[in-house]
What we know:
Layout: E1 7-12, H1 15-24, E2 38-44, E3 47-53, H2 54-60, E4 75-78, H3 82-94, E5 98-105, E6 110-116, E7 122-128
Amino acid sequence: MELRPAVVGLVVSDMAATLAFYRRCGLAVPEGADDQPHVELPLGGGLRLALDTEATIRSFDPHWAPPTGGHRVAIAFDCGSPAGVDAAWAELTGAGSHGHLPPWDAVWGQRYAVVRDPDGTPVDLFAALPG
Length: 131
Protein backbone atom coordinates (compact mmCIF):
# COMPACT_ATOMS: atom_id res chain seq x y z
CA MET A 1 0.00 0.00 0.00
CA GLU A 2 1.25 3.48 -0.88
CA LEU A 3 -0.23 6.51 0.86
CA ARG A 4 0.72 10.07 0.01
CA PRO A 5 -0.58 13.38 1.37
CA ALA A 6 -2.98 14.96 -1.10
CA VAL A 7 -5.64 17.08 0.62
CA VAL A 8 -6.04 19.19 3.75
CA GLY A 9 -9.74 19.62 4.47
CA LEU A 10 -11.48 22.34 6.45
CA VAL A 11 -15.14 22.73 7.36
CA VAL A 12 -16.19 26.38 7.02
CA SER A 13 -19.20 28.31 8.23
CA ASP A 14 -19.02 31.06 5.56
CA MET A 15 -17.51 29.99 2.25
CA ALA A 16 -17.29 33.51 0.77
CA ALA A 17 -15.51 34.95 3.83
CA THR A 18 -13.14 31.99 3.99
CA LEU A 19 -12.29 32.24 0.28
CA ALA A 20 -11.70 35.99 0.62
CA PHE A 21 -9.24 35.26 3.44
CA TYR A 22 -7.34 32.60 1.47
CA ARG A 23 -7.30 34.84 -1.63
CA ARG A 24 -5.44 37.40 0.52
CA CYS A 25 -3.03 34.60 1.44
CA GLY A 26 -2.25 34.17 -2.27
CA LEU A 27 -4.22 31.02 -3.07
CA ALA A 28 -5.84 30.74 -6.49
CA VAL A 29 -9.61 30.76 -5.94
CA PRO A 30 -11.75 29.88 -8.97
CA GLU A 31 -14.33 32.36 -10.21
CA GLY A 32 -17.83 31.70 -8.89
CA ALA A 33 -16.58 29.61 -5.95
CA ASP A 34 -17.98 31.87 -3.21
CA ASP A 35 -21.41 30.24 -3.17
CA GLN A 36 -20.30 26.62 -3.73
CA PRO A 37 -20.68 23.95 -1.02
CA HIS A 38 -17.25 22.41 -1.79
CA VAL A 39 -14.14 24.16 -3.17
CA GLU A 40 -10.63 22.81 -3.74
CA LEU A 41 -7.64 25.14 -3.96
CA PRO A 42 -4.22 24.06 -5.25
CA LEU A 43 -1.43 24.40 -2.68
CA GLY A 44 1.42 23.30 -4.96
CA GLY A 45 3.26 20.03 -5.18
CA GLY A 46 0.01 18.19 -5.84
CA LEU A 47 -1.52 19.19 -2.49
CA ARG A 48 -4.98 20.76 -2.31
CA LEU A 49 -6.95 22.62 0.34
CA ALA A 50 -10.55 21.34 0.35
CA LEU A 51 -13.20 23.57 1.90
CA ASP A 52 -16.67 22.26 2.73
CA THR A 53 -19.56 24.16 4.24
CA GLU A 54 -21.06 22.94 7.49
CA ALA A 55 -24.27 22.12 5.59
CA THR A 56 -22.31 19.89 3.20
CA ILE A 57 -20.80 17.92 6.06
CA ARG A 58 -24.15 17.60 7.82
CA SER A 59 -25.71 16.25 4.60
CA PHE A 60 -23.77 13.00 5.05
CA ASP A 61 -22.97 13.18 8.79
CA PRO A 62 -25.99 14.49 10.71
CA HIS A 63 -24.10 14.16 14.01
CA TRP A 64 -21.27 16.50 12.97
CA ALA A 65 -20.69 19.50 15.24
CA PRO A 66 -18.00 22.19 15.10
CA PRO A 67 -15.07 21.46 17.42
CA THR A 68 -14.85 23.33 20.68
CA GLY A 69 -11.81 24.27 22.72
CA GLY A 70 -8.40 24.38 21.11
CA HIS A 71 -7.69 24.01 17.42
CA ARG A 72 -6.98 20.68 15.75
CA VAL A 73 -5.34 21.95 12.59
CA ALA A 74 -3.19 24.88 11.49
CA ILE A 75 -2.09 26.00 8.06
CA ALA A 76 1.31 27.63 7.60
CA PHE A 77 2.46 29.98 4.82
CA ASP A 78 6.13 30.66 4.06
CA CYS A 79 6.29 34.42 3.52
CA GLY A 80 9.75 34.39 1.93
CA SER A 81 11.41 36.87 4.29
CA PRO A 82 10.97 38.37 7.75
CA ALA A 83 9.63 41.54 6.10
CA GLY A 84 7.18 39.33 4.21
CA VAL A 85 5.81 38.04 7.52
CA ASP A 86 5.25 41.60 8.73
CA ALA A 87 3.62 42.58 5.42
CA ALA A 88 1.31 39.53 5.40
CA TRP A 89 0.32 40.24 9.03
CA ALA A 90 -0.45 43.87 8.17
CA GLU A 91 -2.46 42.89 5.06
CA LEU A 92 -4.53 40.21 6.76
CA THR A 93 -5.22 42.03 10.02
CA GLY A 94 -5.84 45.26 8.08
CA ALA A 95 -8.54 43.41 6.13
CA GLY A 96 -10.23 42.41 9.39
CA SER A 97 -8.70 39.01 10.17
CA HIS A 98 -8.13 38.30 13.84
CA GLY A 99 -4.46 38.65 14.71
CA HIS A 100 -3.73 35.93 17.26
CA LEU A 101 0.03 36.38 17.77
CA PRO A 102 1.80 39.41 16.24
CA PRO A 103 5.12 38.90 14.44
CA TRP A 104 8.05 37.89 16.62
CA ASP A 105 11.50 36.37 16.15
CA ALA A 106 11.14 32.78 17.34
CA VAL A 107 13.94 30.89 19.07
CA TRP A 108 13.87 28.28 16.27
CA GLY A 109 15.22 30.82 13.77
CA GLN A 110 12.08 32.12 12.08
CA ARG A 111 10.05 35.31 12.02
CA TYR A 112 6.60 34.04 13.01
CA ALA A 113 3.03 35.29 13.41
CA VAL A 114 -0.40 33.71 13.71
CA VAL A 115 -3.69 35.02 12.34
CA ARG A 116 -7.04 33.25 12.31
CA ASP A 117 -9.23 32.57 9.31
CA PRO A 118 -12.97 33.39 9.53
CA ASP A 119 -13.68 30.11 11.37
CA GLY A 120 -10.86 30.60 13.87
CA THR A 121 -8.42 28.18 12.24
CA PRO A 122 -4.86 29.27 13.05
CA VAL A 123 -2.87 30.36 10.01
CA ASP A 124 0.85 30.59 10.69
CA LEU A 125 3.00 33.09 8.80
CA PHE A 126 6.73 32.40 8.83
CA ALA A 127 10.10 33.01 7.20
CA ALA A 128 13.68 32.10 8.05
CA LEU A 129 15.66 34.73 9.94
CA PRO A 130 18.97 35.79 8.41
CA GLY A 131 22.08 34.10 9.66
